[in-house]
Design goal:
The protein has 152 residues and is an alpha+beta fold. Helix content is 17%, strand content 38%. The protein is built from two helices and six strands. The longest helix is centred in the first third of the chain and has 22 residues. It is globular.
C-alpha cells in the first residue's frame, strides 16, 4: 500500500512539475508572430535612418506586413511633405495599450525610414499624441514588446 501511494505521489509530482515548466514565461511561446527584433521585419529598423515627422492620422489600418507575420497596426499620416505610412507594431500588443491613436489625431512620430514593398515607410519608435508618449522601441530599435510576456 505504501509503495502504491509513493508511486502515486511521484506520478502527481511529475505531472505538476511538467505543467509548471510548460507554463513558465516563454515556454511554449511561439514567438511574437514575426515581430521580434531578429526577424526579417525587425532587422529592417535602422537607428541610422531615424527621423521625426508630424501629421494628421488619416487612416488606422490592421494589416500583415510580411508573409508569416501576425497582423500589425499601421497609420497613414498626412504631413506637410505628403503622405507617410507608419508601422506601429503587432496588433496583439498595440490593441492592449491605454493610448489610442485614431483617425483625426495630430501626432509626432519618431522612427526609422525604410523602404517597404517598394514604398517609403516609417517603423515607429515613439508616437506623441498631445502630452502622451507611446514608446515602441528603444534607441537601438529593440521593440518594447520583446519583454512584454516576461512582465518587463
Amino acid at each position: 500500500m505504501k509503495t502504491r501511494l509513493s508511486g502515486l505521489w511521484l506520478m502527481m509530482l511529475t505531472l505538476v512539475l511538467a505543467a509548471t515548466v510548460h507554463a513558465a514565461p516563454g515556454a511554449g511561446w511561439k514567438g511574437s508572430g514575426g515581430w521580434g527584433p531578429q526577424g526579417s521585419y525587425g532587422r529592417m529598423y535602422d537607428p541610422a535612418t531615424v527621423e521625426t515627422v508630424r501629421g494628421k492620422v488619416v487612416e488606422v489600418l490592421r494589416m500583415t506586413p510580411m508573409k508569416g507575420m501576425g497582423a500589425g497596426i499601421h497609420l497613414k499620416l498626412k504631413t506637410e511633405t505628403g503622405p507617410v505610412s507608419v508601422h506601429l507594431g503587432p496588433a496583439w500588443y498595440i490593441e492592449r495599450l491605454d493610448l489610442r491613436i485614431e483617425k483625426g489625431d495630430q501626432v509626432e512620430v519618431r522612427g526609422s525610414r525604410v523602404t517597404f514593398n517598394g514604398k517609403p515607410a516609417l517603423i515607429a519608435a515613439e508616437v506623441k499624441k498631445g502630452d502622451e508618449v507611446l514608446k515602441l522601441r528603444d534607441d537601438s530599435g529593440i521593440p518594447v514588446w520583446s519583454g512584454w510576456r516576461r512582465g518587463q
